[in-house]
Every structure is written in C-alpha cells, then in structure tokens.
Amino acid sequence: MSLTEAGQQTRPRSVSRLAIILGLGLVAIGASVAVRQSPWAHERRLESMNLEELALAIHDHPTDPLTLYHYGRALLKAGQVDASQKALETAVKLDPRMYRARVGLGSVLLERGDLRRAVDEFQQAARLRPQEPEAHVGLSQAYYRAGSPTRAIEPLKKVVQLQPGSAAAWYNLGKLYGEAHQSDHALEAMKKAVALDPKVAAYWRDLGRLHRHYSQNKEAEAAYKKALKLDDSDPVAWYWLGQLYVEMSDSPEYRGYAEQSLLRAISRAPDMAEAHFELGRLYERRGSYPLAAARFREATRLDMSDDKALYHLGLALTKMGSREEGQKLIRGAQALGAAKREIKNLENRIRAEAGNRELRLRMARLYRKYGNAEAALSQYTVYRSMGAPDATVDKEEAAYREELRRANALPAQELSALPPAPAP
Length: 424
What we know:
Blueprint: H1 3-36, H2 39-48, H3 51-60, H4 65-77, H5 81-94, H6 99-112, H7 115-128, H8 133-145, H9 149-162, H10 167-179, H11 183-196, H12 201-213, H13 217-230, H14 235-248, H15 252-268, H16 273-285, H17 289-302, H18 307-319, H19 323-352, H20 357-369, H21 373-385, H22 391-406
C-alpha cells in the first residue's frame, strides 16, 4: 500500500473521531446548561444568596414564588417581620400550592400574634402535604398560644405518628396532655420521651411532676434526682424536689431534705419568689417565725401580686408580737386576693367573648381601679375601635390620661395580655 492510499484511509477515521468528540462536547454543554437552568440549580443558587442578593433577584424576577419564599425567609432572619410577611404572602398568592411558603407565612403570623390567620395557613399547608410534620407542629403551636391546649393535641399526635422516634415530640405532647388535664396520656407520653432520650434533664423533671400528681412519691423522687444528676443547675427541679419532700413527710429528716433542696433552688435562682414562699412555709410549720417572715417578705418583694405570701407574712408578724402590722397585711392580702379573682374572671369572659364591647369598657375600668394603667388604656383603645364614637367614654379616658400625666405615670407603650378586638 502506498503512502497516498494509507493517508486516504486514515483521514476519514480522524474526521469520524473528531465528529464524535465534538458531538459529545455539545451534549455535555447542553446537559450543563440544562442543569444550570433546572429547578434544583435555581434552588441552590437562591440558598447561597444573602439578603442583598435576594433583593436584587426579586427586582429581576418579581413574580417568581421560589425567589419570594427565600427572600421572605431571609427578611425574617434579619428581623424585618413586616417585609417578610409581605414577601411570603405574595409567594402564596402566586403559588397557592407552595407548601413551604404557607408554612413560612404561618410562622411569621405566629410570631406576630395573628393566631387566626396562622391557624388557617398551617391548616392549608397540612392539607397540601399531610405527611410533612412542620405544618402540624405550627398548627399545634398556634392553637396552644390561642389558649387551647386541648385543640393543640391532635396536630401534635400526627407529628408523633409521622416521627415516632422523636423524643421532643413525645415530650411536648406529654406537656399538652398535662395542661389539658389528661394525666394518664401525659404520663404515657412523657415515659416515651424519657425512653427515647434518657439524657435530657427536662424530660425526667417533668416525668417526676407527673408521678407526683399520682402520689407516686418514690418514682417522682427518683425522676427528680435523675434530672438533677444531668443538670444540677436547674432551680425548678430543686424547687419541685423540695415541695415533694414537704409532702412526703413532716419528720425532721424530710424537713431537712426539703430545706436543703429549696435553698439550692434559691441559690441557683435568687429571684424565684415561689421557692422563698415555700421555704417560709417550712419555717412557719416548725415555729421559726422570724426566718419565715424573712422569706415571706422576700417573696412579696419579688412578686407584689402574691397575696398568699402577704397573708402568711401577716400571720408570722402576728405570731412575733407585731399584731397591728400583721393584721393590716392580712387585710391587704385578702383584698388583693379578691381583686385578682375579679380581674381573672373578667379576663376569662373577654377571652370567651372577644367581640363584647361592653366587657372591654368594664375591663378598662377594673384595670384602672387596681392601678394597671397600661392595660386600662389598652382596653379603652380596643373599646373605641369596636363601635361608634362614645363621647362619654372619650371624656372619661381623656381625664384618666391627664390624671396619669400629672402623676408622671402615663405609660410609654400601651400593651395588654388580652386578645385584640376581632376584625370586622
């Protein structure tokens, strides 16, 4: 074969190989472009962006729900709750079936205390993906914060069904059962939490409280001791252990155990008014009235609304010979207890009848009577927002504000633990 013939045979093969290489290269380029343009790659890019970069992305793509979702998350992380809510609301409007956006919006609404809308968002998210736990957790939190631990139970039961190995879910379910006065279920759930993760002190501590509820004192003592072995710094566990020893026996031995436990609680949390009160009661029972009075006085200093501590301080002073002062404190404690019951009853009525305007006016006047200016002014504001102008009440409120201003007692910010007026 001549060199010319050989060259003629080799050239087609080289061209063929070159065509294959070029073809593979084009396929690789096409695949790379497809990957970069895929939803997966879009998600990865958004996850890597900071707030400023996401703001620019929103400017370029104002109707992309995924970009809006990530922007809303970044805004919430930065503490810009209003802007976060707006971004997530837009994402949900653009894509009503976007599970993550609904959960995110529900979380923002929960943060802001808009519990009715939070419940709605979490419910819709749960319908979209019933096998995902986040929406059920959020729904449980919203019900709980709305003051309904019983309604909060069902969503959390779904969470433990989806994640039966989650000790935290079982623990929180146990706490909800406890608040709903379903103690049998609470004890069962708390035992589950402890079995799944026996190294969490709080699980043992709350299990001990449930055993105590059933007068299973030895089991309660063992649980508290396990909690304290895991976390010796927990003042609540020491306080509950002290209370348990008081209940277990009035012998000098158990009084000594109780005293040491309560002193340890106070050493870890000096402002725990309840521990000072319980220690005072212990001293009172053994006739050490000066020691008891000191503890009751500290409890009332830490919590001026504690009518029980004030009452027992009065009793201790009377026993010590300061009869006039003691009787005065006892009368004050009785009046304080009556006032607390009156306020509590009306607050409960308002929670049940949030749309009752007249109850708001009564609440404003009651808060005013007992010196809670901040809450009184808040309820005057709610009253005005719920109906037609009322010149008599406007005049009453204005006079009260002037009275507070003259006394330099006008609150800088008006807040109230009661729910706002329902939307019209």
